[in-house]
Every structure is written in structure tokens, then in C-alpha cells.
Amino acid sequence: MKLTEIVCSFYILALIAVNAAAAVAPWEAANPIAPLPQSPLGIDAKLTELKDPPTPERVRLGRWLFYDKRLSSDGTISCASCHRPENAFSEPTPHSTGVRGQQGGRKAPSVINQAWTILPVFFWDGRADSLEAQALGPVANPIEMGNTHEGMIQNLQKTKSYRTYFKEAFGSEEIGKERIAKAIADYERTRMSGNSPWDRWKNGDEKAVSEEVKKGDALFFFGKASCNQCHLGPNFADSQFHNLGIGWDPKKKAFADEGRSKISKDPKDLGAFKTPTLRDISKHAPFMHDGSMKTLEEVVQHYNKGGNLNPSLSPKIHPLRLTKLDVKYLVKFMEALQGEGYQDASPAAFPE
Ligand code: HEC
Ligand code: HEC
Question: How far is the CA of 211 from the centre of ligand 1 (A)?
Fold first, then answer.
């Protein structure tokens, strides 16, 4: 071989090596590190002002984990199977279907705008006190993801590259359940919804909504309906538990699901559930903790008739005497809460 040939082949080999090092793994290309999102109009708080703010590296890792079916026992279910981005991270069915087709008893709630809740209460009955505490629940729930925390960790350890991203996010390669929970919770925190037609109107754009929406707004906040006794703040949720009589069986004189009282052990909380956010509400019918109402009209009519009478009905619930038009205005108002900022889709590739 001539000297020039040797030099040439070295040069080519070196080029190949440099290219290989620079080539981005397909799963990295599918989920690059991105700056933290800005809060959309209507959400005044900022992610960077949180006590332990999310970092771009943790959010990237959390985004993979949220959509990765390998967290479940049989590789069929991810968080996103029940919290679907196209349904504002909720589900279009009354009950969730988990591993091996098993049905849970409650509707999957939307997980948007959970970075700022008035109080730290999660689940319909408030049994978790942080997104981190919440995130590990479904993995070990035999009906939901049917795995153990050890099983989940082993599945991730089997991959060659997940540990790289745990190092990137947390400083060392250890794959642990607290880290998994933190990363997922940080991804959830970035799913913010604002800049809805209603937010734009409230910030000075008179043309952003119709007259019907404005009438609905008046009913919702001050008028006959006064929905904002419970649906309040930027997220339209008071972090409290109320009984609207959903799931009450008047013949058996019992609730299908006892709700908050099982956790608080307070009989006053029988049949009470957490007030859900109304942001992007039209994206996630059916409604209520048991998914028993198909349309927003049906929900408003439930309030209009004064709920389902039962011994622990909230004192705030009583007949409202809304006209047919009032009901329509309230529905139009709720439809104007469709916002932006939370939209996402599963990354196309995961660490191998
Ligand atoms: C099989 C369906 C299913 C899967 C899988 C699932 N969830 Fe859920 N999720 C639910 C249901 C149902 C509830 C309500 C349960 C309750 O309140 O008792 C819920 C509640 C929540 C809440 C509470 C929201 C609120 O308003 O209080 C959060 C947050 C959440 N899930 C995140 C996750 C994360 C993170 C994962 C993945 C690790 C996950 N979920 C996997 C069905 C599911
Ligand atoms: C006493 C407090 C309270 C008042 C007043 C109230 N709500 Fe609610 N709202 C709740 C609670 C609690 C739930 C969940 C109940 C359940 O699932 O059992 C709920 C659920 C809803 C849902 C379904 C959300 C979902 O994700 O499934 C909608 C829509 C709704 N309310 C709209 C309204 C409107 C419109 C008004 C006024 C007419 C109103 N609410 C008044 C507490 C209240």
C-alpha cells in the first residue's frame, strides 16, 4: 500500500468514527432536550418559580417515561393509554382499561395544569399529596399497569441507554422509582393550557368570544348559576371535595363509590369528589368521576335540577331555575375554555 493510500484510509476511518459519534440516536432525535415552555396567557405563574422547578433534562426523560409501555407488566400500557394527549390527557371512556383488558372503576381525569393547584390533592378522592406520589400509584395498581416498582425498574435497566438519560437528568446512572416519579411529574407540569378564546377576551380582545359566551360567563361567575363557588381560580378548581349526588342509588340509599369519605373517614364526605378543572373540558367527555354524563348540557341540567338528593348533598347545590338559553350560554362558555400549550404526542422512538 502506498503512503497516500494509508493516509487516505486513515482519513476515511476517522471520518466514519467522527460521524458515528456525532450521529444522534433516533430516540434522541424524536425527543430532543427543549427549553421549558412559557406559561400561556391566563396562567400567570411560571414553571421557573416553582420550589423545585422542572429542568429540560428531567422533562425529556419524563416525556419518554410517560409514553413508554415498558413501565407496565406486559408492555401494553403506558400513562398515555389512559391520559391521552388528544383528550387533554384524559380519556373518552367512562372507565379505564388497564393491563389484560381489566376495567377500573373511575374515569381518568385530565392531567393538564397540575403544576399549580390551590391545594396539593390528587385523584378524585385526594388520596395523593403530590404528582410524584401519584405517579407511582398506577404502575403498581394490579388493574392499571399491573407491575411492581422493581419490575418497572428492571424493564428500564434492560435497555442499554435509559441510564444515560437518568444521568443527564439526575447526575448519576441509577434508575430508581423516586427518579422515575420526579421525571414523569415534571413532564406533567409542563402540560399547561391557556390562551383560550376566553383568556383572550379577559385580556382585552372583545372579539375573541361570542355574545353567548359572555352571557355564559356572567351566569357562571355571578349569576343564577354561580358555578365558581367551586370552579374557581385560573384552573377552575378549588381543590375541595363536594357531593353532587353522582352515583347515588335512591333505592339502595347508597353510593356506588364512597369517594372522599374512604380517605378522610369523615361521614360528611360520603359521595364527595374533588372539583375537576374545566379547562379543555369539551375534549374529555364523558364527565364526572364515573363518566356517567355524556354531554355538557347533561351536566348543566344536573346542576339545574339541584343535583341528586341524598343525605350528604353539598349545601351549595340547589335548583337553579336556568332557562334553556341559560343552559346553552353556560355550555358555550365552557367550550370557550379550549386552550393551547399542553398539546403533545408520543415520541416516535424510545431509548433502547
Ligand atoms: C389504566 C388507566 C390508567 C393508567 C395506565 C394511568 N392512569 Fe392516571 N388515572 C387513571 C384513573 C382512572 C385516575 C383516577 C383514579 C382515582 O381518582 O382514584 C387517574 C388519576 C391520575 C392523576 C390525578 C389527576 C387529578 O386530577 O387528581 C394523575 C396526575 C395521573 N393519573 C397520572 C398518571 C401517570 C403519571 C401514569 C403513568 C405512570 C398514569 N396516570 C397511568 C387512569 C390511569
Ligand atoms: C358545590 C361545588 C360545585 C358547584 C357549585 C359546581 N360544581 Fe361542577 N363539579 C364539582 C365537583 C365536585 C365535580 C365532580 C363531581 C363528581 O364527579 O362526583 C364537578 C364536575 C363538573 C363537570 C365535569 C368535569 C369533568 O371533568 O368530568 C363540569 C362540566 C362541571 N362540574 C361544570 C359546572 C357548572 C357549569 C356549574 C354551574 C352550573 C358547576 N359545575 C357548579 C363541583 C361543583
Answer: 37
Task: State the virtual CA torsion across 134, 239, 191, 41 in degrees, nearest 10.
Answer: -170
Q: In whole angstroms, what is the distance from residue 80 CA to residue 88 CA?
A: 11
- Atom in ligand 2 nearest the alpha carbon of residue 333: 35
Burial pattern 16-32, b for ≥16 Cβ within 10 A else e, equals eeeeeeeeeeebbeebe
Q: What is the mean pLDDT of residues 233-262?
A: 96
CA dihedral (205, 210, 214, 219) in degrees, to 10, reads: -150
| Distance (Å) from CA 134 to ligand 2 centroid | 22
Residue nearest to atom 12 of ligand 1 (CA): 108
CA of 319 to the centre of ligand 1 (A): 33
12-20 average pLDDT score: 49
Cell reading at 153: 425498574
Q: Which ligand is nearest to the CA of 307?
A: 2
| pLDDT tens readout for residues 140-190 | 787 888 888 888 999 999 999 999 999 999 999 999 999 999 999 999 999
Measured distance CA(282)–CA(295) in Å, rounded: 9
